[in-house]
Specification:
With about 220 residues, this protein is of the alpha/beta class. Helices cover about 35% and strands about 20% of the residues. It has one domain: TIM Barrel (Alpha-Beta Barrel). It binds D-xylitol-5-phosphate (DX5) and zinc ion (ZN).
């Protein structure tokens, strides 16, 4: 499978969201990545269900929802109702991760688990077979435009080994500081899905940036 690209709307122009979603609709983007922050799990607040329910009505891309919130299990129904394709919850935010993952799947969504930069891959050893995707954070979550943490590449190796060893079908997604240089390193190392926010939206031609990421 060639890799997928999921632009993060966090770096879009919030006063022109429809214009930016239309740009993504007409691009080679595979998914639309939506970052939900609660000001508790991460030191920032982004947007919530009123906005995402409207976005669902104007996008033709599957919604990849990255919940940077405490107790994400409380919102499984809401995320399912808004029509999300993928629901990503943070390992660090889930006390009963197995129950949460199966709750997500029971609602017909794909289930992803996100790891912060300091969280080791080995903690997934008893859940990896149940996951549709693992999202490796390559920055500390909460803000766009941060510098890529290179240790992510060695975590990617560990994750690939675990996936093979456990015969898991999990995809590998990476989020944070992705541009053409880090994106190339990640694709060569086996990443399946690249998330990119500021690299896409800081350009005069974001459409072209998505094309360049797809072409890596
Ligand atoms: C950060 C978010 C990312 C963010 C990435 O916490 O999870 O999805 O939008 O932004 P860039 O690509 O600018 O690092
Ligand atoms: Zn994200």
């Amino acid at each position: 499978m060639s890799h997928l690209v999921a632009p993060s709307l966090l770096s879009a122009d919030f006063l022109n969201l429809k214009r930016d979603v239309d740009m993504i609709n007409n691009s080679e983007a595979d998914w639309l990545h939506l970052d939900v922050m609660d000001g508790v799990f991460v030191p920032n607040i982004s947007f919530g269900f009123p906005i995402m329910n409207l976005l669902k009505g104007i996008t033709n891309k599957p919604l990849d929802v990255h919940l940077m919130i405490v107790q994400p299990e409380k919102f499984i129904d809401e995320v399912a109702t808004m029509g999300a394709y993928m629901m990503n919850v943070h390992y660090e935010a889930c006390t009963h991760l197995h129950r949460t993952i199966h709750g997500i799947k029971d609602k017909g969504m794909k289930a992803g688990v996100t790891l912060n930069p300091h969280t080791p891959i080995s903690l997934l050893k008893d859940i990896i077979q149940d996951l549709d995707m693992v999202l490796l954070m390559s920055v500390n979550p909460g803000f766009g435009g941060q510098k890529f943490i290179h240790n992510t590449l060695s975590k990617l190796d560990d994750l690939k080994n675990l996936i093979v060893q456990k015969k898991s079908h999990s995809l590998i997604q990476v989020d944070g500081g992705v541009d053409l240089d880090t994106g190339k390193l990640l694709v060569d190392a086996g990443a399946d899905v690249l998330v990119a926010g500021s690299f896409v939206f800081s350009s005069e031609n974001p459409h072209k940036r998505i094309h360049q990421l797809k072409a890596l």
